[in-house]
């Protein structure tokens, strides 16, 4: 069973997670919002059920899972069905691309990041949100992913690994943010990760290396060929 099949068959369970982990969800959303451009046309690749695109005001999404795409459409998102490694859009069409917790469901990041870079206009932004595998929650996900519906086949990565891949894809790291700082309490699991955290854990901070959820604002750089021609 592919990751798309898993999300297609468990859409309601996926969407309910955000209500069960409302503090985590809101902290993640505000972390991404802190990096979101104030204007321009953007798209969320891997829009899911629209839980981020809708409140962030992103009107266009791409999603491979049909049921999730329908739910995002119900939230007012114009959704195209497809995969991030082969985006059905012309080059340099968008001012920014959102990739939120998509990296961990892709074995090889290079094709996904390459396609994102292709459709971003010069000096446009890739806004990437991810779970840091090296964080306490990231380690909890890794240790228990064999019992989790969605993370069973996930490729969790550390912040350093993600940054390395983003830079190699032709982006310049501009700004970073992180949230959910600390260790989950006893009884926390992948379905309820906010157990044991105080309010301060959900504040948004600059940098990487402490928060379980990280967000990057990476700017598209000119290709080597373009640099030489200039």
Estimate percent helicity.
Answer: 25-40%
CATH superfamily: Vaccinia Virus protein VP39
Ranges where pLDDT stays below 50 over 5 or more residues in a row are: 225-230
Task: Categorize the overall geometry.
Answer: globular
* Strand/helix succession: HHHEHEHEEHEHHEEEH
Distinct helical segment count: 9
Sheet with the most strands: spatial strand order: 3-2-1-4-5-8-6-7
What would the CATH topology be? Rossmann fold
Named at the architecture level, the CATH assignment is: 3-Layer(aba) Sandwich
Q: What's the alpha carbon Rg, rounded to whole Å?
A: 17 Å
Structural class: alpha/beta
How many structural domains can be distinguished in the coordinates? 1
Query: In whole angstroms, how far apart are the ends?
Result: 48 Å
Kindly provide the name of the CATH class.
Answer: Alpha Beta
Mean pLDDT: 94
Largest sheet: 8 strands, mixed
Question: Quick summary of this structure?
Answer:
34% of the residues lie in helices and 23% in strands.
